[in-house]
Amino acid sequence: MLNEYVYCPRLFFYEWVIGVFQENADTLEGKSQHKRVDAVASPLPSADELDDDNLRSRSVSMSSDRYGAIARMDLIEVNNGTVTPVDYKHGQPRETQEGLQLWPADRMQLAVQCLILRDNGYRCEEGLVYYLKTKQRVRVQFDEVLFSETLKVIEDARLLAASGVIPPPLADSPKCPGCSLVGICLPDETAGLSSLPEVPEQRIQLSLFEDHKAGARENSQVRRLIAPRDDLRPAYVNTHGMRVGKSGEVLQVRDKQSTLKQEMRIRQISQLNLMGNIQITTQAVQALCENGIPICYFSQGGWFYGITTGMNVKNVFLRKSQYRLADEQWFALSFARQLVAGKIRNQRTLLQRNHIEPRAITLQQMKNMAERAEQASDLEELLGVEGNAARLYFGDFSGMIKREEQGDAANQFAFDFSKRNRRPPRDAVNALLSFVYSLLAKDCTIACYAVGLDPMLGFYHQPRFGRPSLALDLMEPFRPLIGESTVLSAINNRMVQPRDFVTAGPSVALTPGGRKGLLHAYELRMDTLVTHPIFDYRVSYRRLLEIQTRLFARLLENEIKTYPVFVTR
């Protein structure tokens, strides 16, 4: 961790204080190269027992109460009673005019090891790093200057961890592209948005934000340092009565007769979704929690009601900021205005793109509603503006649905739509909308947990028992872009058919086959690449949900002054 602190204090904060870690190609290769070193630990004799013999001890753990530090040393070479720590590094040494040298972070790490060895009575004069990429050894001589620098680093790292204040990102640093946490840190995005002046409380207008956005682009070019898509995929178990178990590193899905129906590698999925009455073993739950993979539970009707996740994020400082600002009416109103205005603009764009012939009066009134939302005086007025915009939007929603083919009209479930209804949905289109909203709420809840936020404490959606209010806040601008777009795609492309619905009293629900078709449409939408209007790079909607959630965390921590609501072009 001290090596990480010297390399980048922000990286240290993420790994040590917040408790997050992400693998990339370099970390995986380095871990593989360390297997031989860590395979068999060989004990190091105590300082009093060392003699003049030469020996080597691998994977030695040692601590120092005096310095409050602990080290696991890859290799210790003993020669005539003097010990030399050897550290294995994945990369290559630093080239200077004086020759090959250690990188500052590696130099300091060896100095910590020397301090610990000396405090335990060993004689240690130098250390070396073996760089695996070039297969070269580089030595460093220990002196008091290096020790003084090292002790200061130890103290500074402790103070930073205790402060709870995350350091700013490195400015246009060449270190960032190779960092495994770059998708979590968002260095260029945070730096670019932090240069925007704070928007006055009563002037949160799109045109003003556009001006700031243009200025941010001129001052700081945002590099695309994150992958556009996640390599991992969500897994859904959709059939009643199935049982999920574990064998080694593989999840196994079996039916009531214990017949194997499906296998999936744990490290290849991002989440596990259980739809209805499905069992899961404690061994499978433990393995998923250890790997940071959430388990999401849905009722048979598609209601998202629970989540199991491991202790993946330990940072409490972010949640303290969230709790504090949730009681500030000015902050809740400012944030809610932006969410509602962005949602209305995205609804209007969806009508313009997909409606056969949208009414001019509807588009004009929705534009007026978005502007009114930016200047609402309280949350109650904002709710009224949102409700009026929804009435206009869903009043024209049927114009985006392709008419049924000849012969479908005789079916009980025609895809006709007149207005939004729920609890329970009373027609096929509303059943699809309710189910997709549950899926979207689930993904926003997962994003909140991944960042370290409390999904139950919202700002626009006020806290209510059992409701993930913050997740519902963050999903507002994405309802039309992901939720309604998925439903339109599923209907218009016949991914769901009228036969995929059943009635239960006044309610209409999807059959397992209908859910499968809608889930397929939803995942296709989540994998769709979209250009971010501020950062000008393309990412999937699933990645975008995480980016926007992390940017909201930056707002809570006062790293940026304005939340950049995603408004599609």
List keywords for this structure.
single chain, 569 residues, alpha+beta, Ribosomal Protein L15, Chain: K, domain 2, 4 domains, five-stranded mixed beta sheet, 19 helices
Polypeptide structure, described:
With 569 residues, this protein is of the alpha+beta class. About 3% of the residues have low confidence. The chain is built from 19 helices and 19 strands. It has four domains: 162 residues, Lambda Exonuclease, Chain A (Alpha-Beta Complex), CATH 3.90.320; 44 residues, no CATH class; 76 residues, Ribosomal Protein L15, Chain: K, domain 2, CATH 3.100.10.20; 240 residues, CRISPR-associated endonuclease Cas1, C-terminal domain (Four Helix Bundle (Hemerythrin (Met), subunit A), Up-down Bundle), CATH 1.20.120.920. The strands form six sheets. It has a five-stranded mixed β-sheet.
Number of helix segments?
19
Please count the beta strands (DSSP E, at least 2 residues each): 19
The percent range for helix content is 40-55%
Mean pLDDT score: 87
Known CATH architecture of the largest domain: Up-down Bundle
Q: How much β-strand is present in the residues? A: 15-25%
Short description:
With 569 residues, the protein is of the alpha+beta class.
Topology, please?
Blueprint: H1 2-7, H2 9-18, H3 25-33, H4 35-39, E1 55-64, E2 69-79, E3 82-89, E4 94-96, E5 99-101, H5 104-119, E6 126-131, E7 136-141, H6 144-163, H7 182-185, H8 187-194, H9 206-219, E8 233-237, E9 243-247, E10 250-254, E11 260-265, E12 269-275, E13 279-280, H10 282-290, E14 295-298, E15 304-308, H11 317-326, H12 329-354, H13 360-373, H14 379-395, H15 428-451, H16 469-475, H17 478-492, E16 501-504, E17 507-510, H18 512-526, E18 529-531, E19 538-540, H19 541-556
Parallel strand pairs: 3-6, 8-12, 9-13, 12-14
Antiparallel strand pairs: 1-2, 2-3, 4-5, 6-7, 9-10, 10-11, 14-15, 16-17, 18-19
Helix pairs in contact: 5-6, 12-13, 12-14, 12-17, 13-14, 15-16, 15-17, 15-19, 17-18
